[in-house]
Amino acid sequence: MLRALELAKKAYELGEVPVGAVIVKNGEIIAEGYNRRQATNRALSHAEIEAIEKANEVTGDWRLDGTSIYVTLEPCLMCAGAISASRIGEVVFGAYDIDRGFISSRADINKLGNTDITVFGGIKEDRCKEILDMFFENKRRK
Question: Cα(32)–Cα(99) distance, rounded to whole angstroms?
Answer without folding.
Answer: 25
